[in-house]
Amino acid sequence: MKQSDKQETEKGAGTDKIAKYCTSHSSIFPPLLLALMATAAFLPPAPVLRPRIPTARYRASPICAAASDAPPPDADTDEGEAPRGGRKDRRRVVRIAWEKLVRWSRSWRSRNRSDVLETTRKVVVLGGGSFGTAMAAQVAAKKPDLEVAMLLRDDLVCRSINDRHVNSKYLSEYSLPENIVATTSASEALAGADFCFHAVPVQFSSSFLGSISSYVDPKLPFISLSKGLELNTLRTMSQIIPLALGNPRQPFIVLSGPSFAVELMEKLPTAMVVASKDKKLASAVQQLLASSNLRISTSRGRNCRGT
Question: Cβ distance 224 to 253 under 8 Å?
Fold first, then answer.
């Protein structure tokens, strides 16, 4: 007899005894209690807790959420049931599939990654002040074979930079990278440039840019380092540059932030923001400037004024 049937029989016998006892002593037990006891005879038996049988836990096969260079987990799911040859075949199939996925991921990333620093051959800096010199040194230090041309108006400073790699007028206590070349010729400095850093003071920017506008490529991105307004017109750099160059569609970026030239020269942690209406252009300048000590954030909006 099963355990559940045995319990049912014992329960029924016990219920009959209780009913006979209650009937013979009806004066002692109230009617409500008798009804409850009679109803209990028809209730199902209480569930019997059975001990759990230990079962083998199998690991689920890995799901590739993103390709990485780490080898895939073991593909075995039923040790002891499948023959050893079957396990080896499954391991081989999973490993081959994983290697294909990793190769595809690497090729896809290489095709879609545009390394601006690798494709940039020349950068020009307009102006040889403190911040223009510091920015030239920042860019030149990232790539030794990158040509960084500084357009200056002082022959003595040009010779000092080219001969001794020192700006004798600004930040003279710091050495400059050897791939920085200074010149007073606008045509020589701007020829073949991929990016242009504008570090001329705002009050002199209109006249200076007007004098070199014939040498400027219409597609050359201008990165403005100058801050402030033109006093007589109250124009910002985002208005001065296209007007002075005679090109309303001249690519324009603003580089600003709580930073100093000395911090850049001493490689201290510095943060700046690149702002442009062109999101791709802002990202390109971010890649060009960002380094271990200089963090560049991007901003995009129509209210980019360059102040």
Answer: yes
User: Beta strand pairing status for 147-151 and 180-183?
Assistant: parallel
* 8 Å CB contact between 174 and 141: no
Domain extent at residue 242? 116-299
Q: Report, in angstroms and rounded to the nearest whole number, the Rg of the chain calculated over CA atoms.
A: 40
**Count: domains in the chain:** 1
Lowest-confidence region among 86-95, 225-234, 284-293: 86-95
pLDDT at 52: 59
DSSP 58: -
Condensed to tens digits (0 to 9), the pLDDT of residues 132-181 reads: 999 999 999 999 999 999 999 999 999 999 999 999 999 999 999 999 99
Query: If you search the block for the tokens 């003279």, which residue do you land on?
Result: 172
CATH of the domain at 284: 3.40.50.720
Hunting for tokens 């990158």 — which residue is that? 146
Asked if residue 271 is part of any domain, the answer here is yes
3-class secondary-structure state, position 78: coil
pLDDT tens-digit series, residues 106-129: 766 655 556 888 899 999 999 999
Q: Is 24 within the bounds of a domain?
A: no
Give the whole-angstrom CA distance, residue 80 versus residue 96: 24
**54 assigned to some structural domain:** no
pTM of the model: 0.62
User: Residue 200 domain-assigned?
Assistant: yes
List of residues 6+ apart from 146 with CB closer than 8 A: 117, 120, 121, 122, 123, 139, 140, 179
Residues 6+ apart with CB under 8 A from 180: 136, 137, 140, 148, 149, 150, 161, 165
Q: State the average pLDDT over residues 11-38.
A: 52
